[in-house]
Design a protein that fits this description.
281 residues; alpha+beta; 14 strands; 34% helix; 32% strand; globular; cell shape; MreC_beta-barrel_core; Cell/Rod_1; transmembrane helix; Cell shape-determining protein MreC
């Protein structure tokens, strides 16, 4: 109590001045409508700014939640697509029953690093071996393919980008199913090149190019781009097609890792085929 009185005596003039100032301001605002309006406007402005900030913060976190929700919904849609399943015909051919077995699953990931201006470009994602990610798994986007995993750590993975001449992808023209090999020529990150399309194929500008499912990495039917231009290669007697990518590689953020549930079986069969060919040769 003694300390309180000492404090009050020491600061009595400041406390008295503060009380007088408060009383003056209160009386002034109470008797002046102009001051009341100014005070009200100032208060509304400050409160409005506070609410605006709260709204932006809330929307930021809600947007992140919505993005995750959309990624999971797209994952389910990919897995439900018939191209993500393998057909198994019933033994009883009279019934003509076709059973669809799940062949691919999809894991949502975020792209945390990506290059597009180098001759050999790579992608880093935020999931690794503890999430079931393995080398040779494909990366797809909502509007195309991005690359193939080449190395994993427990929490991260690196993929070779489609914008890398070392990657070769089986692709086809959607309208007639003629297929060839697609790769990047190292010139423009908006275009890739489709080779080995037969000379009797009918090609038009704007035709859709998609994956053909002839590898164990990507399901068939994933769009890659559209025919921009084409020319006939006299030396090899086939078409070379310049394809405008649907993916804008300078702005990719979210993706899916494709897991082929039959990949080991696929590889075993392919290895057996190679061994048999070597025996005959």
């Amino acid at each position: 109590m003694r300390e309180f009185f000492n404090f009050f005596l020491k600061w009595r003039f400041f406390i008295f001045f503060f009380l007088l100032e408060y009383a003056a301001i209160f009386i002034s605002f109470s008797n002046s409508k102009i001051h009341q309006y100014i005070y009200a406007d100032s208060s509304n402005f400050i409160i409005g700014k506070i609410y605006e900030s709260i709204y932006k913060v809330r929307n930021y976190f809600l947007l992140e939640i919505e993005n995750k929700k959309l990624l999971n919904e797209n994952k389910s849609l990919h897995e439900a697509c018939v191209f993500s399943k393998i057909r198994k015909i019933s033994k009883d051919l009279k019934k003509k029953d076709i059973i669809y077995l799940q062949q691919y699953t999809f894991t949502p990931v975020q792209i945390i690093n990506n290059s597009i201006h180098k001759q050999e470009n790579y992608i880093t994602i935020n999931k690794g071996s503890i999430d079931g990610i393995k080398p040779d798994m494909g990366i797809i986007l909502y509007n195309g393919i991005a690359g193939i995993i080449i190395k994993t750590s427990p929490h991260f993975s690196i993929a070779i980008s489609l914008l890398n001449p070392k990657i070769k992808v089986n692709a086809r023209l959607k309208k007639n199913k003629y297929f060839g090999t697609l790769s990047w020529d190292g010139i423009d990150h908006e275009y890739v090149v489709l080779y080995d399309i037969p000379r009797h194929s009918i090609i038009s500008k704007g035709d859709i190019v998609e994956t053909d499912g002839k590898s164990a990495t990507f399901p068939e039917g994933i769009p890659i781009g559209k025919v921009h231009s084409y020319k006939f290669d006299e030396e090899h007697a086939n078409y070379i097609i310049k394809v405008k990518l649907m993916v804008n590689f300078s702005a990719i953020e979210n993706a899916y890792i494709v897991k082929n549930l039959f990949k080991e079986e696929w590889n075993d069969v392919q290895l057996y085929k190679v061994e048999k060919n070597n025996e005959f040769n």
